[in-house]
Design brief:
The protein has 214 residues and is mostly beta strands. It has four helices and twelve strands, in the order ααββββββααββββββ. It is globular and about 60 Å long.
């Protein structure tokens, strides 16, 4: 579904500005109708307790149902691959693979699962526009999402492109004041990603650790 179709489905009369709930609905509809997604990403994690910031970069690939691949390139290689049944976390430097069987994307944070169109944003969050220094610009809406029920994070921000309803940036604040920020670039949707892209072959000779089943 293109951005024009999403706009036509929203309830604001022509020329009227959208409110935060309608923008959240636009994001929801965009990702519900997206079958796959790929992008370059930059991640900034800021630890309040340590007063440190760590930056990583890489590429992410998402495909319904329940497939994902996060390939970290800098500062060191690391791979998170979910094939719809299991999650593999591969650290080449440690020559180690952790495997979690019976993995479900429902175990992930909404900061990631919205890319599958999972859940209902307005059912799960109080939604409002936000003005936070350093987030977004004139071509964006900035949504602040506060969980309605206890969650692993206290607040989530989406930077939403006004022309497309794509989310180009997320910011997660946890109860300890730590910040996890993701910037997406070179985004593409519905490109026909193959299932093979989400299959992980355990390299020979590496240590394999089986994670406890949830």
């Amino acid at each position: 579904m293109n951005a024009l179709c999403v706009l036509l489905l929203l309830s604001a009369p022509p020329g009227a500005p959208l409110d935060a709930a309608q923008v959240a609905d636009g994001v929801q509809k965009f990702y519900e109708t997206t079958q796959d997604f790929q992008a370059a990403f930059r991640q900034e994690y800021s630890s309040k307790a340590l007063g440190q910031k760590k930056e990583s970069t890489g590429f992410v690939y998402i495909k319904k149902p329940g497939r994902m691949r996060w390939d970290y390139r800098t500062p060191q290689a690391k791979h998170f691959v979910a094939d719809g049944e299991a999650l593999y976390i591969y650290d080449p430097d440690l020559e180690q693979v952790m495997v979690q069987r019976s993995f479900s994307d429902a175990e992930l944070s909404t900061a990631v699962t919205f890319l599958w169109g999972r859940g209902k944003l307005r059912d799960e969050f109080e939604v409002a526009f936000a003005s936070r220094p350093g987030l977004g610009g004139p071509e964006h809406w900035v949504l602040e999402l506060t969980p309605r029920k206890p969650a692993r994070f206290s607040r989530l921000y989406f930077v939403v492109e006004k022309k497309t309803f794509r989310v180009s940036e997320t910011l997660v604040l946890d109860p300890g004041g730590n910040e996890n920020r993701l910037f997406f670039s070179r985004m593409a949707v519905n490109v026909g990603l193959k299932d093979e892209a989400f299959r992980f072959e355990i390299p020979p000779g590496v240590e394999v650790i089986e994670a406890p089943r949830p």
